[in-house]
Amino acid sequence: MAATFASRCSRVGRSLLGGLSNSSPGLFSTSHELTCGNFFSQQQRTFIQMRTVLKVVDNSGAKKVMCIQALKGKKGARLGDTIIASVKEAHPNGKVKKGKVVYGVVVRAAMQRGRCDGSEVKFDDNAVVLVDKQGQPIGTRVFGPVPHELRQKKHVKILTLAGHIA
Amino acid sequence: MRLEKCWFCSSTVYPGHGIQFVRNDAKIFRFCRSKCHKNFKMKRNPRKVKWTKAYRRVHGKDMTQHYYIYMLFQDSTFEFERKRNRPERYDRNLAESVLKAIPKIDKIRVSREEAHHKNRMKGKKQKLQMEAVRELKQGISLVKAPSVLQKDPSLTLPKVKVGVSRQQSEDNHPMEE
């Protein structure tokens, strides 16, 4: 009883309220694992979709954005994909202001992404770098590690600005 | 392609296995399987988890490089692992000699690990024997009834001596089992 309630809680907390069902197969294992009692460490990380709040890791002025659309991908965006987002929180004097609709490239995702050698990478949080329609970053600095999946997606500019490449 | 080490258990992670977790301070944690990954998420310290190599090194169960500090060559067997992270300028002769040396070094390292293990387990046989004798002394009533022992004193536990006598006490063991 408690386990199903907890699993329902986690599902609601993490997925879209509107009812976009996440068809990632890992969810079946989540409800089973939650019965073990380790509630916080058995989170099932999923895609970045509508209403996902992401951290902004460049100096474009925004601090938090909320995803309103994942370009490409029915279930949502993953590491290296572009999203359309709305700025929810911004620095008082920055290039972007609160309420602006911007494009962003996901540079860190809590959901693991498979690499071509078969291994998987995952990061600690969800983070974006704001870009313009052409894909050029708006800011001039990028903080934190970025994956080298961006090279394949042709976001070379972000890679050059980055401090660490994962 | 590189063979990495699992952060938790120190086993090798072959390509196609495991998960890499990148923390926001750009530190990369590699795990060989979900067991190690889950232990990491539980914030367990590998130095306290018995089955990891870190624990075994810290508690002296496995050979570390500090153990034989006076043996200079000991350092080299572990030095090679550390040297992999510093790229060296390519030198054909050096590469050739290193390739020749690799199996030799492996052999030496294995033999030293065996010697360390033997050293650690020294005196185990003796200890087991003493414990068995004591157990037998305490529980001789399970083997033979005390009235029988009093009647026939030759059936009491003989002193543990090398050779024939020891065989007699060993004969009592299977009966006790």
Low-confidence stretches of chain B: 69-74
Q: What CATH architecture label of one domain in chain B applies?
A: Roll
Number of helices of chain A: 4
Q: With helices defined by DSSP (H or I, 4 residues minimum), what is the helix count of chain B?
A: 8
- The share of residues in extended strands of chain A comes to 25-35%
What labels would you give this structure?
heterodimer; A: 166 residues; alpha+beta; 5-stranded mixed barrel; two-stranded antiparallel ribbon; 4 helices; 19% helix; globular; disordered N terminus; B: 177 residues; mainly alpha; Ribosomal Protein L24e, Chain: T; 8 helices; 4 strands; 7% strand; elongated; Ribosomal_eL24 (chain B); Ribosomal_eL24-rel_N (chain B); TRASH_dom (chain B); nucleus (chain B)
Model description:
Chain A has 166 residues and is of the alpha+beta class. Chain A is built from four helices and nine strands. In chain A, the strands form three sheets. Chain A has a five-stranded mixed β-barrel with strand order 1-2-3-4-7. The N and C termini of chain A lie far apart (41 Å). The model of chain A is unreliable at 1-39 (pLDDT under 50). Chain B has 177 residues and is mainly alpha-helical. Among the domains of chain B are: 1-62, Ribosomal protein L24 (Ribosomal Protein L24e, Chain: T, Roll); 90-139. Chain B contains eight helices and four strands; from the N terminus they run ββββαααααααα. In chain B, strand 1 (4-5) and strand 2 form a beta hairpin. The longest helix of chain B is centred in the middle third of the chain and has 29 residues, at 92-120. The chains are: A alpha+beta (166), B mainly alpha (177). Chains A and B meet through strand 6 of A and strand 3 of B. Strand 6 of chain A pairs parallel with strand 3 (19-22) of chain B.
